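call fold(seq) -> tokens
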Amino acid sequence: MRRKRNYWWLVGALLLPILMIGCQEEAPEGVVSSEQLLAAAAEVGSVTAEGQIVPIRHLQLSFEVGGEVVELLVEEGDVVAVGTPLIRLKDTDVALQVAQAAAGVALAEANLEAATATLEAAAAQVAQAESGVTVARAQLALVQAEPREEESLVAEGNVTAAEAGVLQALAGQQVVNEISTAQVTGAQAQVAAAQQEVKVLQDQYDELLRLEILGTPEEQARLALAAAKARLTAAEAALAEARRGATAGQRQSASAGIRLAEAQQTVAEANLALLLADPRREQVVVYEAGVSQAEAALAQAQVGVLQAETGVSQAEAALVQAETGLATAEAALAKLTLVAPFEGTVAALPVEIGAVVLPGTPILTLADFRQWQVETVDLTELDVVDLAVGDTVDISFDAIDDELTAVISAIGTVPQLVRGDVTYVVTLDLPADLDLPLRWGMTVFVARDA
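ret:
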């Protein structure tokens, strides 16, 4: 504090005559009295401190995770925007996890599509069964009533409806085949991911052998490669299973639907024949059986809808889980790239390619040099009580013959111990349009009259 030394010199000059005259009650002429000393000290009671120039914003950046530096995307002195990639760590394993998670999402989406198609087919079967119950009950009512000429028209309509049911059942069988195609697509994605994993691990293992790195690294790489090949074999088996088409249960269900529709068509045609022959008592028995059969078909179709809804719920849950896994893997991959949190200049970059960094270790300093501030380094508790945010102070520089006025923008609340004194950091804002050769760390002298 250059200016504080000047003030102490003044106080010392004032004290010297008093020390020379000892404890005299009255000072002789020409000698400063204690009352005069106190008055002089009050006049020189201005606040003074030293500080240093700092950018308006600066930060030491570090990675959340550790790893090997494989790419430096900037150099010291580069000006970067918010979000600009700065440094990348090795990401081979994490990138592989992202690829596997993406394949899992593709498979889950395919399974959800297949489950949705199954639910739609089940809902169509319920609608068809409800229509069958309505028709069967109407037919029974007609048979039980007095014969009318319109009965033949109704019976013919039933035959037409039954024929449409057969066509709908055939369409349901086609849906089953489409489901198989979706499963093949998902299984192919799994195989591709497994092949990529085997390739990456095989390359790593071959590199170890080429470099003659044996022992534990070679054994671990060999075991990882064997596990990846096993997963590839499983994925290829799943693909082969998917290519064999729909499962036996799915095919049996579709075939059963066709047989049921054909049976309903046979019943409708028989009913029409009976109506034309007018065997009244036989018709009642037949239509009653038709109602029972239609109601049983409806109950079965409703059970199918419940099962299909359960399948959709499970497929949706699996998709959410797969998407969560992908988001987690992508977040882990993003942590391997250090990006700029604000617009600024790369002030320091003390790291090289190939270095292994630890989590939380500062490896790059980013600063915003568009405006400067001053931070005091020795403002004591005796002086800080006389300051407030918004006050103006005079500042001068050790390296530049200029004096400026600055505004206090912040006063520290946490004390620091400097050479035995309790001090507080006070931040001053300099004018934004300064045209001075300022540098980070330059010494500044701060003064404010009492």
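The helical segments are 2-21, 34-43, 92-144, 150-210, 216-243, 248-277, 280-334, 381-384.
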